[in-house]
Design brief:
By secondary structure, the chain is of the alpha+beta class. The chain has two domains: 9-87, 2-Layer Sandwich (Phosphorylase Kinase, domain 1); 94-271, Transferase(Phosphotransferase), domain 1, CATH 1.10.510. The chain contains nine helices and eight strands. A six-stranded antiparallel β-sheet has the order 1-2-3-4-6-5, with helices on one face. Strand 3 and strand 4 (39-45) form a beta hairpin. The relative contact order is 0.10.
Length: 351
């Protein structure tokens, strides 16, 4: 299979410039051969073993119609070279944005991207498709990637093919950081973002993507991936405690994880107002914590806080003298939880 080059004709499109590459092949920016203002991205495998993966990706994405998923436009796995045409996202990947913010993205920006990814996954999961390779490189952002102005509508999830791939070579595993085996068990995804059940070669479901989302959330907030039982607020003090709780319910063993992307979105709606979304479900009233009264306002931003909160949901400032923590793992449970949602330990004796 000859390497593609600028000016080559692929189906109805003329290749302009290479904009991405991986172990599977290359991604090119291209224009329609007649309507030159119609720009697309064309994925071309440079290894024949990826042609079936290319075909599968084009087929499954064609059935997913959602503004947060990169749209499929054309597919011909039998052409020379085989190709898959998709929507061109004119903007950086989340990987690039994180690399530009080594201390973490603004919290509102991280929440906006997190929300957009969850909305895309909700659509995929509702259609019986598990992505299996959620990572910053597979999350694209429309526009210039200005972190101060990001909204969930700018998020586009791509690359739904790897999770269904067949066998790969040792060289491609080392190059991409991804593993797939074909002898009874399948390990699909990028190692650093894989859920434990993926590493074990066990069956995966929507919760495996939720785990990967937790890793991505931590990386957006802190600039690097989590280690052990580390919480975002332990690395970055302005991260509010309720966001630690949401991260902890993603980045945990399978039976303790959120069961779906919708469940994570519901948790966000209960606790915050991510960019571009209304708070659809009001938080249930809780009795105030010691030293707190109904109608308390944050001493830093002067905005109202709810009874039962340890941290201000607007600016992240600690608003009680002694936040409740789990004696086993140091996480911040809900004020009236009896057991820690992060490690399962008893909280009966926690003040």
């Amino acid at each position: 299979m000859a390497d593609p080059k600028p000016g080559d004709r692929v189906g109805e499109y003329v290749l302009l410039e290479q904009i991405g590459a991986g172990s599977f092949g290359q991604i090119w920016k291209a224009r329609h051969h007649i309507w030159s203002d119609q720009l697309v991205a064309v994925k071309i495998p440079t290894d024949l073993q990826y042609v079936r993966t290319l075909q599968r990706e084009g087929v499954v994405v064609h059935g997913l119609k959602h503004p947060n998923i990169v749209r499929a436009i054309g597919l011909d796995p039998y052409a020379d070279p085989p190709y898959y045409v998709m929507e061109l996202v004119d903007g950086p990947s989340l990987r690039q944005l994180i690399d530009e913010h080594p201390d973490g993205l603004p919290i509102d920006a991280a929440l906006a991207v997190f929300e957009g990814v969850l909305l895309a996954l909700q659509e995929a999961h509702n259609n019986g498709l598990v992505h299996r390779d959620i990572k910053p490189a597979n999350i694209l952002l429309e526009g210039e990637g200005n972190a101060a102005e990001l909204s969930a509508a700018q998020v586009k999830v791509t690359d739904f093919g790897l999770g269904r791939a067949g066998g790969v070579t040792t060289a491609s595993i080392m190059q991409s950081g991804s593993m797939v085996t074909g002898e009874g068990k399948s390990i699909s995804g990028t190692l650093a973002y894989m859920a434990p059940e993926q590493l074990d070669g066990s069956a995966v479901d929507a919760r495996s993507d939720i785990y990967s989302c937790g890793v991505v959330l931590f990386e957006m907030l802190c600039g690097s991936r989590p280690h052990g039982h580390e919480l975002p607020s332990q690395r970055r003090s302005e991260v509010p405690g309720w966001l630690d709780q949401i991260f902890g319910r993603c980045y945990t063993r399978c039976d303790r994880r959120y069961e779906s992307a919708r469940a994570v979105l519901d948790a966000l709606e209960l606790k915050a107002q991510p960019i571009g979304r209304a708070r659809a479900i009001p938080a249930p009233p809780l009795p105030p914590l010691p030293g707190q009264t109904s109608g308390t306002v944050c001493s830093q931003c002067k905005k109202p806080v709810e009874p039962g909160d340890n941290f201000c949901i607007h600016c992240g400032r600690q608003i009680v003298a002694h936040p409740r923590t789990c004696p086993s793992c140091g996480a911040y449970p809900e004020p009236y939880d009896r057991f820690c949602i992060f490690c399962g330990g008893s909280l009966e004796r926690v003040d």
